[in-house]
Write a structure and sequence with these properties.
It is a single chain. By secondary structure, the protein is an alpha/beta fold. It contains nine helices and ten strands. The strands form three sheets. The protein has a five-stranded parallel sheet with strand order 6-7-8-9-10. A three-stranded mixed sheet has the order 1-5-4. Helix 2 (107-116) packs parallel to helix 4 (143-154), helix 4 (143-154) packs parallel to helix 5 and helix 7 (207-219) runs parallel beside helix 8 (240-250).
C-alpha cells in the first residue's frame, strides 16, 4: 500500500490507540475542501498537571528524576520511543503525538514549590525524558526557560537533552548553572545527512545548526555531551565516526550513544516510515 508523505511530519499515519475501543477512520474518497489538513497544523492544549517531577523506574533510562515541560513533541522524529505516551490520554502514537501538544503552563511554579519543600534533597533533574524541552513550542511558551530560571535560583543541577539550536537562547541561565558545576547539555545528533534528517526528524534543527549549538555552548563554558542517538542499523550506524569527529571539533567534552528502540506502536510506525520513504521493496531494510 502506498502511504502519503506529509510534509513536515515524521509519522506516515495515525494508527488506532491500543487502549481505546472507538476508532475514527476518515473516508479516503472524501476530502472537505473547506477543512484544513489537521496533520499540517500543530494544536496546543493546556496541561493542568499538578506535579512536574517524575520518578523514572525504567532500567534502560540513565536518570532517576525527570521534568517534561510538554507532552508530545512536534519535532516528529519517526523513531521516537516516547510516542506511546499519547496513547495513555486517548490519542494516537502517530500523527497525534507530533500535532497535538500539551503545554504545562504551571511547570515553573510547580517546580519552585517542589524545590522549596523541606523534604526536597537536591539531585539532578533531567529535561526531558519523553519530550524535547526546546521543540518549536518553546519559542512561544517559554516554559523551559521559566524552569531554568527556578533551577538557576536554587542552583539545582540539571541535565538537558535536545535536538534544537534554540537552547542557545538560554546561554545566560546555563552559564549561571555552569559556574556551580550544575548543568550538562546533551545535544542529540542522529545523522549528518541533511536529506535523511529532513524526513526522519522533520522539525528538528538541521545537523549543522546542532553542531553550531555545541560550539556556542562550549564557547560559553557550558559542558556539552553529544548523543549519537539513536543508532539505526544499516541507516545511520556508518556515520558514528564522522559524527564524533564533528562533535569533537565543535567542542563537545564527551559523547555517548543509544541503540534504536521501537516500543509498542513505534515499531509499526517506523516500519511504515521506511515503506513511505524507501519504497519499492517488500522488505524496506533490503534498500540498504
Amino acid at each position: 500500500m502506498e502511504l502519503p508523505v506529509i510534509r513536515g511530519r515524521g509519522a506516515a499515519d495515525n494508527p488506532p490507540n491500543r487502549f481505546e475501543r472507538l476508532v475514527y477512520e476518515p473516508d479516503p474518497e472524501w476530502v472537505d475542501p473547506d477543512e484544513p489538513d489537521p496533520w499540517r497544523t500543530t494544536q496546543y492544549f493546556r496541561d493542568a498537571a499538578r506535579t512536574i517531577l517524575n520518578r523514572n523506574h525504567s532500567p534502560d533510562i540513565p536518570f532517576d528524576l525527570g521534568l517534561n515541560p510538554y507532552r508530545g513533541c512536534s519535532h516528529g522524529c519517526a523513531y521516537c520511543y516516547a510516542r506511546p505516551n499519547h496513547e495513555y490520554i486517548g490519542l494516537s502514537a502517530g500523527l497525534d503525538f507530533e500535532s497535538k501538544i500539551f503545554v504545562k503552563t504551571d511547570a515553573p511554579a510547580l517546580l519552585r514549590s517542589a524545590l522549596s519543600s523541606r523534604r526536597w534533597r537536591p539531585e539532578v533533574i533531567v529535561m526531558s525524558g519523553v519530550t524535547d524541552p526546546y521543540q518549536p513550542a518553546e519559542r512561544r511558551f517559554r516554559i523551559t526557560r521559566g524552569c531554568l530560571e527556578v533551577l538557576a535560583e536554587f542552583r539545582n543541577p540539571v541535565g538537558i537533552i535536545t535536538k534544537n539550536h534554540l537552547i542557545t537562547r538560554d546561554i545566560d541561565l546555563l552559564s549561571q548553572l555552569a559556574q556551580h558545576d550544575a548543568v550538562i547539555v546533551n545535544v542529540s545528533i542522529t545523522s549528518l545527512d541533511r536529506t535523511l534528517q529532513g524526513v526522519m526528524e522533520p522539525r528538528t534543527s538541521i545537523p549543522a545548526r546542532r553542531l553550531a549549538a555545541v560550539e556556542a555552548l562550549s564557547r560559553a563554558g557550558i559542558p556539552v555531551n553529544v548523543m549519537v542517538a539513536p543508532v539505526i542499523p544499516a541507516l545511520t550506524d556508518h556515520e558514528i565516526p564522522a559524527i564524533l569527529a564533528a562533535a569533537a571539533a565543535a567542542g563537545a567534552r564527551s559523547a555517548g550513544y543509544t541503540p534504536l528502540r521501537l516500543p509498542g506502536a513505534v515499531a509499526g510506525l517506523f516500519q511504515r516510515w521506511l515503506e513511505t520513504h524507501f519504497p519499492g521493496s517488500d522488505d524496506p531494510l533490503a534498500y540498504w
